[in-house]
Design goal:
This protein is an alpha+beta fold and about 650 residues long. It is built from 21 helices and 25 strands. Strand 1 and strand 2 (about 60-65) form a beta hairpin. Keywords: DNA damage, DNA repair.
Length: about 650
C-alpha cells in the first residue's frame, strides 16, 4: 500500500484492547448492564441461587455468586476471549434458547474494569481463577472455591474515565441494579435471588418458588402484596404461541410503566409491540396517563422470534407481530371481562385514608361533598348547590328523593349512640326509623346461610340513600358501597352501545325534524368525512352548507340530549385519535357519546332507579371503572368502617 499523503488519514487496525473497550460501550452502559449480563450467565449455567453484592452503586464492586455448573480451566481461559461462547452448540443463530452468549459480555467488562472469575465444576477437586485487568488477561491458576462461579468486577470504567462522568448517583445506579434483578426474578421464579449493598435496593431477597402458584407468589414478592388480590390470571394459546400471566385490574394502576413485565421464552424484555398491545387492551378502561400492573410470559418456537435486535437483547422482533398483538389483546380483554365489575381493593384503602380524621370533628366540614368527589377523581362535574330553604338538610321528600341524614327538630329527642358492637346491624338502623324512612322496601342482605345466597347474587347490595344527588350509598351484607352514579351509568351506556354495534347495529331514532348544527368549518368537514363510519354508530348526518351538518338520526340511547355538545365530543374523539386505527378511534367516539346518554350528577333518583343501576352494574363487564379509568364505586367493609370509629 502506498504511503499516505500529508493530511490524509491512514487506515490501520485498532489495538485489540481498544476494540474490546469500544465493544464494551454497546453492552456495558452502566453498572446495571454488567449485572444483567453476569446474572444471565448464571441463569444459563443452571444456578438455583444467585447472590449479587454491589458497592457505590456498582462502580466500586459488583460481585455475582452462583451455584451453577461452573467452568473448567480450559473453559475459563476461553470465556474471556471475544467471540467464544458455550451458548451456540450448533451455531444456529435462529434458534437461540439461552439468555446470552458466555464470552460476549465477559471480555467487554474485562476491558473497562478489573474482572476476576473463580469457578469450580461440581465434583472437581479444585477450582480455577483468572483475572482480566483493563483488557490484559492473566493466566488461569488453581484456586479454592465452592461449586459454581464467583465473579468480581471492581473499579468499573476505570479504564474509560469518560464513561464515569455520565453515571448517575450511587443511589440511582443501585436502584437500576435492583430493577434489573426484579425483572430477572419475575422471569425465573425457581431461582433464589438476593441483592446486598448500600442504596435503595439493598436487602432484596426473592426466595425460590416451586409448585402450584409459584409464579404468582414470585409476582407478589416483586410487585407487592396488593397485586395478588387485585389481579386476574390469564392463559391463551394461538397457533404456535402460548401466553400466560396475571394482569392487574383497571383501577389498580401506576403513574409509570415500570410495573409492566414481559417474558419471552424466559427472557425479560422491554418491547414496543408488547407495550402497544397492552395499552390497546386497557384503552377504554384506564386513563391515558396511567399504566397497568401486570406480568405476561410468552413462549414459542425460538425460530419465530429474533432476540438479536438490540445488543443488550432487551428488544425482540416477531415473525408475525400481528398474531402476537392480537393474542395479548384478546387474552387481557377476556381476563378482565371474567372479573366483571370488580374494583381494586386499593380504592377502598385510599378512601379510608381520606376519611380518617386528623382530629375528631363535631360536624361534617363544608367541603364534605368535594372530599367525596375526590375519592372518584372526578374532574368533570361538581355537585349542585343545595336549594335554599331552612338551612338544614332536607328530610325525606314527598317526590321520592331523600337525604342521607337530618338534623333533629328542637322538640325531638337527641340521637342516642347504639350499644357498642352493633355496627350496621338492626340496632343501629332502628335509630333512623320514623321520619327518615328507608329509600325502598326492606332489602337488607340476608345472612350468608340463606338459601337465596343474596351475598353472591347482589355483591353491590341494596340502595339506602343518595348523597348530594350524585353518590348512591348501598348496604351489603358485610359493609357499604358508594357509587358515582354518572360514572357508573356512563360505563353501562358505553358497554350497551358496543354490544349493539357488534350485534347487528346500534338502535337509532329518527329525528322528527332534522336538526342543523353550526360548527367550525374544519370540524364540520371532519364529521362529513367520517359520516359513513358514524352511521354504523347510530349517528346519521350529512353536510349542510359551509360549517354546518344536518343530523337526521341519533342512537336511541342518546336521544333527547344536546346535539351540538354530542357532535363536538365526536369531533374531539376523531381528532385525538390521530393515526390510530379506525376501529380504535370509533371506540373513542362511542366512549364520548355514552357520556351524553348517562345519568348526570345532580339528578335525584328514585329507590327503584338506584337498585336497577346496581343490578345492571353487577351484570356488566368493566363496570368497576368509567370510560376514563376512574373507579365507579368504593366498597368499605364493615370492619374497616368500625376501625374508623375506634370500634376495633
Amino acid at each position: 500500500m502506498a504511503p499516505s499523503s500529508p493530511g490524509r488519514p491512514q487506515v490501520r487496525r485498532l489495538d485489540p484492547v481498544l476494540v474490546d473497550r469500544i465493544a464494551a460501550g454497546e453492552v456495558v452502559e452502566r453498572p446495571a448492564s454488567a449485572v444483567k449480563e453476569l446474572v444471565e450467565n448464571a441463569v444459563d449455567a443452571g444456578a438455583s441461587s444467585i447472590a449479587v453484592t454491589i458497592a457505590a452503586g456498582g462502580r466500586k464492586l459488583i460481585r455475582v455468586v452462583d451455584d451453577g455448573g461452573g467452568m473448567s480451566a480450559d473453559d475459563l481461559a476461553l470465556a474471556v476471549e471475544r467471540h467464544a461462547t458455550s451458548k451456540l452448540p450448533d451455531g444456529d443463530l435462529e434458534r437461540i434458547e439461552t439468555l446470552g452468549f458466555r464470552g460476549e459480555a465477559l471480555p467487554s467488562i474485562g476491558a473497562v474494569a478489573r474482572l476476576a472469575i473463580t469457578s469450580r465444576v461440581p465434583g472437581a477437586e479444585t477450582g480455577h481463577v483468572i483475572v482480566v485487568d483493563a483488557g490484559h488477561k492473566g493466566p488461569v491458576r488453581p484456586a479454592a472455591g465452592q461449586p459454581g462461579t464467583r465473579i468480581e468486577v471492581t473499579d468499573l470504567f476505570a479504564a474509560t474515565p469518560a464513561r464515569l462522568k455520565f453515571l448517575k448517583s450511587d443511589r440511582a445506579e443501585a436502584t437500576a441494579v435492583g430493577e434489573i434483578l426484579r425483572r430477572l426474578a419475575v422471569a425465573h421464579p425457581q431461582i433464589r435471588f438476593t441483592l446486598t449493598g448500600e442504596g435503595a435496593s439493598s436487602g432484596l431477597v426473592f426466595p425460590a418458588e416451586t409448585g402450584p402458584g409459584s409464579w404468582l407468589r414470585r409476582l407478589v414478592a416483586v410487585l407487592g402484596p396488593e397485586f395478588g388480590q387485585n389481579s386476574a390470571p390469564l392463559s391463551l394459546e394461538r397457533e404456535a404461541f402460548a401466553l400466560d400471566g396475571h394482569v392487574g385490574l383497571p383501577t389498580f394502576h401506576r403513574a409509570a410503566a415500570t410495573h409492566v413485565h414481559f417474558v419471552v421464552n424466559g427472557r425479560p424484555v422491554r418491547d414496543r409491540l408488547l407495550l402497544s398491545a397492552v395499552r390497546g387492551a386497557y384503552a377504554d378502561v384506564m386513563a391515558s396517563d396511567r399504566h397497568p400492573v401486570l406480568a405476561l410470559a410468552l413462549t414459542c418456537d425460538p425460530a419465530l422470534v429474533d432476540v438479536n435486535v438490540h445488543p443488550a437483547k432487551t428488544e425482540v422482533r416477531f415473525r408475525d407481530p400481528g398474531l402476537v398483538r392480537g393474542l395479548i389483546v384478546s387474552a387481557i380483554h377476556e381476563a378482565l371481562r371474567r372479573e366483571g365489575g370488580r374494583s381494586s381493593g386499593t380504592v377502598a384503602s385510599r378512601t379510608l385514608e381520606s376519611l380518617r380524621p386528623q382530629q375528631a370533628p363535631l360536624s361534617l366540614p363544608p367541603a364534605a361533598s368535594r372530599q367525596t368527589a375526590s375519592l372518584f377523581a372526578r374532574r368533570d362535574e361538581t355537585a349542585p348547590p343545595r336549594p335554599a330553604g331552612s338551612g338544614r338538610p332536607e328530610a325525606f321528600a314527598r317526590d321520592g328523593g331523600w337525604a342521607p341524614w337530618d338534623a333533629p327538630e328542637p322538640d325531638q329527642a337527641p340521637f342516642e349512640a347504639p350499644p357498642a358492637g352493633t355496627g350496621f346491624g338492626e340496632g343501629r338502623q332502628a335509630q333512623f326509623a320514623g321520619d327518615l324512612a328507608l329509600p325502598s322496601a326492606d332489602q337488607r342482605m340476608a345472612p350468608p346461610e340463606a338459601e337465596s345466597g343474596p351475598t353472591e347474587q347482589h355483591p353491590l347490595g341494596a340502595a339506602r340513600a343518595q348523597l348530594h344527588e350524585t353518590y348512591i350509598v348501598a348496604q351489603t351484607w358485610d359493609g357499604i358501597v358508594i357509587v358515582d352514579q354518572h360514572a357508573a351509568h356512563e360505563r353501562l351506556v358505553y358497554e350497551r352501545l358496543k354490544r349493539e354495534r357488534d350485534g347487528g347495529g346500534i338502535a337509532r331514532q329518527i329525528l322528527l325534524i332534522p336538526e342543523v348544527v353550526d360548527l367550525d368549518p374544519v370540524e364540520a368537514d371532519r364529521l362529513a368525512d367520517a359520516a359513513e363510519a358514524l352511521q354504523d354508530l347510530g349517528l346519521v348526518l350529512e353536510p349542510f352548507g359551509h360549517g354546518a351538518v344536518l343530523v337526521r338520526e341519533v342512537p336511541s340511547a342518546l336521544a333527547g340530549g344536546s346535539l351540538r355538545a354530542l357532535l363536538t365530543d365526536v369531533v374531539d374523539a376523531l381528532t385525538e385519535g390521530g393515526a390510530d386505527p379506525l376501529a380504535r378511534r370509533l371506540d373513542a367516539v362511542l366512549s364520548r357519546m355514552s357520556c351524553h346518554g348517562s345519568i348526570r350528577a345532580g339528578r335525584r333518583l328514585r329507590p327503584e332507579e338506584m337498585n336497577a343501576l346496581l343490578r345492571e352494574m353487577e351484570a356488566t363487564p368493566f363496570s368497576g371503572q368509567c370510560n376514563h379509568g376512574r373507579p365507579t364505586y368504593v366498597e368499605l367493609k364493615l370492619s374497616d368502617v368500625e376501625r374508623l370509629f375506634g370500634r376495633r
